[in-house]
């Protein structure tokens, strides 16, 4: 047998695998384009309350995207993500109420402030790991509410701050709820594209190496403290951006809206949605938004019990989260289509 024939035989499986990956990537972008088209079409077909709910799904998805970066990709634990969400929300509210800045200006500033605070808190926190890190981040969420109530002249104290919502430009012809939805959609798309690019870069590979084996990653030259701290700061930045959009959508902020239960709910939503996957934050946002309301409808006396049971049921059916479940379903469909 000639050398050329031997090389051709060896390279054939490699080419077939490459073609399958290209085809899978093509289908992934086709599905994403279809979902984006459906997302743009939805607010014109839904009642205002449903539009509001899906707007909040996008807000929570951006916050969970940051939490996924820290927990799912970097392998760190955080029970204080709601604190950074509150930093973005209150930062935007104060800029709008005290300084009367334009709405678009508040978004990058709120994200930057959250990034700096996340970086400052990440430096000492990254010396810890596991349960110790979880306790430190939990403490952040616990002391935030009394801190916001303490500075009443700035934050409005227990009464909070009431703000006007962004008005849609006349040329759009959109209602207020539709305009807020598209603002949240634009921020969510930009956030997901940024996270996608980040995870496919050298930084993403470093975070994955840290998550899988810190000792091996350090041996390969990955600076653990540097990337862990950056992951903490980036996670805070996404949460701050989500908090800013939250202020736009709700038009009101108060300390009780950012209690420690928010951080726990966000972490539960991410685990249910799927750690380490790009679709996990979106599925988690759907879970965080709709499951509590469903629990309230099922049993008004004990919605928390129903909420907990639903989490247990989802994790029993899909241990890797809803993203893993949908991924397996999509793989089965592709496999069936290839057989036909």
Mean pLDDT across the residues is 84
- Name the helix and strand elements from N-terminus to C-terminus, one letter apiece: HHHHHHEHHHHEHHHH
Identify the overall geometry. Answer: globular
Q: What's the β-strand tally? A: 2
Order of the strands making up the biggest sheet: 1-2
Instruction: Report the major sheet.
Output: 2 strands, antiparallel
Approximately how much helix is present in the residues?
over 70%
User: What distance lies between the first and last C-alpha atoms, to the nearest angstrom?
Assistant: 35 Å
| Rg computed from alpha carbons, rounded to a whole number of angstroms | 22 Å
Give the uncertain stretches in residue-range form.
none
Q: Helix/strand/pairing class, anyone?
A: mainly alpha
Quote the beta fraction.
under 5%
Tally of DSSP helical segments: 14
Brief summary of the model shown:
It is a multi-pass membrane protein. The protein has a domain at 49-259.
Write the layout of secondary structure elements.
Layout: H1 3-41, H2 48-73, H3 81-97, H4 103-125, H5 131-150, H6 152-155, E1 161-162, H7 176-199, H8 202-212, H9 214-219, H10 224-250, E2 252-253, H11 260-273, H12 280-298, H13 303-317, H14 322-339
Antiparallel strand pairs: 1-2
Keywords: Cell membrane, Membrane, Transmembrane, Transmembrane helix
Organism: Nonomuraea cavernae
GO cellular component, one term: plasma membrane
